[in-house]
Protein: Alpha-1,6-mannosyl-glycoprotein 2-beta-N-acetylglucosaminyltransferase
Organism: Gossypium hirsutum
Amino acid sequence: MLCIVSSMANCRKLRLKDAALKRLLSVVVVTLLGVLLLIVSLRTNTTPGLSELDEDLSEIADIQSFSEKLNLPKQNEFSIRLAKQNQMPPRNRDLYPKLAKDHITIVLYVHNRPQYLQVVVKSLSKVVGISETLLIVSHDGYFEEMNKIVEGIKFCQVKQIFAPYSPHVFPDSFPGVSSNDCKEKDDAGKKHCVGSPDQYGNHRSPRIVSLKHHWWWMMNTVWDGLKETRGHNGHILFIEEDHFIYPNAYRNLQLLVSLKPIKCPDCYAANLAPCDVNLRGEGWDSLIAERMGNVGYAFNRTVWRKIHKKAKEFCFFDDYNWDITMWATVYPSFGSPVYTLRGPRTSAVHFGKCGLHQGQGQTNACIDNGSVNMQVDDIDKVANIRSEWGVHVYDNQPGYKAGFKGWGGWGDDRDRQLCLNFAQMYHSHNTYLSAVTMS
Ligand SMILES: *[C@@H]1O[C@H](CO)[C@@H](O)[C@H](O)[C@H]1NC(C)=O
Ligand SMILES: *[C@@H]1O[C@H](CO)[C@@H](O)[C@H](O)[C@H]1NC(C)=O
């Protein structure tokens, strides 16, 4: 302390005070340091135990408040088993211990058409670069024949997930059929049955609503629920059980994803196939920007957040098709046209000629002996997109858009609520476990 007071007495007083203050300060500092050290040592010594305990405790609390708050359907033993299975690590990690840094995760969503799945898997096995990434197969329902095919995959890391709230998993209660459900055009008041009809007066059909439920559950789960992907920063590619994938699909997609910010800043996604699924591409020396397609589409987390914000629009639109719902409500609500970028030659083909949920257990199978006649030319075996190409933009393409009323099939309040619950299940509580194993 600088003592410039003229009187010596005053100065000494100050010096004394100063000394006392210093002592006090050193006591405080030493005490603080001690406490700090104690905290640090406690943390380093017991962190795992403490946080595990925390998790256990909060998990129980979560499960209770979670079910009450979200009102998810009561799970049965089987659906709990499926939810637990969803936490199994990917297979083939011994064969492919590391994913490439810039990998594009592939999600294949399937129901129950083993003959189709076989074709898809065989086509995937020939995709150049597939071993660099993780393949997630999302199942609507549990079917041994489907599992067998997935278990046979050896060409990359594979993770199987099963929609635990699939109507196919609930034989006698919602989301499946329950005995007092209204059927077809029943009058709920007169028949004392449960259900609210769609805009055309029809009651829900669990087999039909399962499609949209599965898609929405799968989207929420891969982006926000799975520990393997919820930190993934790149794109995720989505394909279906009746999409044939060309050998150049992955390398082309990588090019499209890297060109997208430069060539088409307005593009939300990249697509492997034209929006019109009957087309195979123009064959021009040009990239194409057009409306979002539903075959082989890939986008990133920024776009997912935008979609997720429109959960209400998605869940309340009276159409059982996820893609028509997106075209008619979600994309238009973004405020500007939703373009996607693709190459001039297709890298994926929708080969299923039968509608969904048909074509199995029928005499007129849509595909013969698990193979389909798809022509793959040499040009489809290597990346065939050029970074120097310009972009041709298709404006005002025909198709479902804002104003379309929907085909119905999605009028039941219970379905709409379940759908909303899927959008919330990884957000109101941040423990993944509670969301997937809760009963
Ligand atoms: C994700 O894609 C959108 C649309 O292409 C783009 O605007 C955004 O910058 C991308 N986000 C990241 C983190 O790359
Ligand atoms: C499918 O396989 C069966 C038995 O291998 C054979 O008899 C039949 O001709 C095949 N069908 C077609 C269309 O190839």
Residues 1-16, 40-65, 354-365, 430-435 have pLDDT under 50 and may be disordered.
